[in-house]
Amino acid sequence: MPEPTPLSARSVVLSLLLGSHPDRMSAAALVRAAAHFAVPAPTARVALTRAVAAGDLRREDGDYLLGERLAARQRRQDEAVLDAEREWDGTWEVAVVVVTGRPGAERAALRDRLASYRLAELREGVWLRPANLRRPRGYADDPVLATALATPDADPRTLAAGLWDLTGWAATGRDLLAHLAARHDPALRLAAAAALVRHLATDPLLPRALLPADWPAQQMREAYAAYQDELRALAIGR
How far apart are CA 164 and CA 11, in angstroms? Predict the structure, then answer.
C-alpha cells in the first residue's frame, strides 16, 4: 500500500484533538504541538479558524473542542481501540429496511448509520453482524427498520467472511503497523498513526471465533494507544 504522506495543517490540528483525551486544548497548546509536526504558527492559527468555520471544531471557554461530527468519529475510534466486546452466544443483530421509495440521500444516510454500528449488508436492505458488542443497538429506533436478534442457519465463519474482506483488512493493518514502526520523523509518524486509526475504525469487531488466526487488530490497538501517550505528552509540553 502507498506510504502515508504528511497531513495538511488542518488535519494535523484535528488529529491532535482526535487523539487527545480530554478532547480540548487551548490555542497556544495546539499551535505549540502543531509546530512539532512542521506546521508554522500562522498556518496553524489559520487552520484552526477554518476548522471552526467548517464546524469541525468549536470554541468553549477559550479552548478548542471537536465538533459534533468529529466527536462521533472519536467515539468510533475509541470503540475500535478499547475492548468493546462481550462474550458471544452465537446470536446476530439483524436490521431489515421495511420502507421503500425513500430519497437517495435518506438511503445513503441510513447506510452510513448502520455501517457506523458495524453492521454489514448481506443483500439490499438486509444488514447484520454478530451480537458481541457492548454498545447499545441505537439504530433500532429508526422507523424504517425492523430489527431483531437471531441465529442464522449459515455457518458463522462463512457468513462473516462473506460480509467482510477479512484477509484484505488484515493485510492493510499489518502494512500500517510496519509504517508506524518505521517512521521517526514526527510528521510522517503522525500521518502513519492517523492512517492506522482510520483503518481500525473499520474493524468489524467480530468475535474471536470468527477471525483469522493472524488478525492484527490487537497489535494495532496497542500501537495506537502508545502513540496517543506520545500525543498527550506533547500536548502538555513534556
Answer: 29
